[in-house]
Amino acid sequence: MQPFNRTALVCTSLVALSTTSAVFGQATIQRPVVQTARVQTTVSAPASVVAPPMPSEQATRAFIIAKRAYDKDIKRIRGQFLGAKQFPATRERGLEELSKFTDAAAVEPLIDLARKEKQDVRDWLFEHFAERLDPEVGQSTLAWMAIHDQDPEMRKEALAHLHGPAAKTTQMVVERAIDSGNMDIVSAGAGAAGALQLVQAIPHLIVAQQPVPSMSGSGDLAFISVGTQRYLVTDLQPVVGDNSVGFDPTLSVATEGTVVRIIDAVVEFYNLDAHNALVNIVKEDFGQPVDFGFNVPRWKQWYEEEYLPFAQARAGKRAGTPPTTRLEPTN
């Protein structure tokens, strides 16, 4: 599986003590040394999720029975027209048969089919979801696939076919992903929010920029030793035998040089995808660039004092409901 194409910025502060070792390991602390490392890490693909979420009223016995029936019919069509079949006309006939499945209960069987099929069926699937299904069902399914599908190519294709304005179910899928706390899912959700220009996700993205608190540890975490070791005789025992005498020496090691002890570390995580999506959405909706970096308290203050009044004042001039979510006060 290819690595998930998302990046997270990790800031690490290491507190070390530089020590000089004399003979027999006695050390004298000279001065504290503080180092800061900034590295980029590539995160793995999201964990596999079985099926896209459906509204609660669809989790009924009738819905489950219909899904099983669709699954059986779709597998029959695959065996008859798709799969190993090579003739374009035969495969085209199979896609025509599949085009009849526009019910929400057929979504999961169609996704399972596409995962096992060639690129022509995958291309048809995204077009089918975007154009033939109920708009809310199709859009929310594409959003789910763009965030959760285990195949990176299917995530990429689903994101490319995802367009706004976002329906309520789609908004729910995206916001839950951003709020998940999983760096991979948050990054994918941020990408979906950006593709949809989902202004309702702005408060969620503000918090998701720094999804977890700083982590720290104490005690000796590591050490680096640069020095010279010399052997010396520290004890000598005479050994006497018949008409002979000798000595049994005891050797010790003396180390001279420098030992750097890492005694503390602090790690801070910043989600670049959430930040970039936030900046782009705000610029497009607010009409001017706004960027406070990863200063979450400053972002919250701007959202409460500037963006919410702006959105509420614009509500009568633009269709749709403006975001009215209020953020918790910053400690």
Question: What is the compact description of this entry?
Answer:
The protein has helices at 61-81, 88-98, 107-116, 119-131, 135-148, 152-160, 168-178, 183-196, 202-208, 272-286, 296-314; strands at 7-21, 27-42, 215-241, 244-271.
Topology:
Layout: E1 7-21, E2 27-42, H1 61-81, H2 88-98, H3 107-116, H4 119-131, H5 135-148, H6 152-160, H7 168-178, H8 183-196, H9 202-208, E3 215-241, E4 244-271, H10 272-286, H11 296-314
Antiparallel strand pairs: 1-2, 1-4, 3-4
Defining key terms:
331 residues; alpha+beta; four-stranded antiparallel β-sheet; 11 helices; 4 strands
How would you characterize the overall build of this protein?
The protein is an alpha+beta fold and 331 residues long. The longest helix is centred in the N-terminal third of the chain and has 21 residues, at 61-81. The chain has eleven helices and four strands; from the N terminus they run E-E-H-H-H-H-H-H-H-H-H-E-E-H-H. Strands 2-1-4-3 form a four-stranded antiparallel sheet. 44% of the residues lie in helices and 26% in strands. The chain is flat and about 105 Å long. The protein has helices at 61-81, 88-98, 107-116, 119-131, 135-148, 152-160, 168-178, 183-196, 202-208, 272-286, 296-314; strands spanning 7-21, 27-42, 215-241, 244-271. Helix 1 packs antiparallel against helix 2 (88-98).
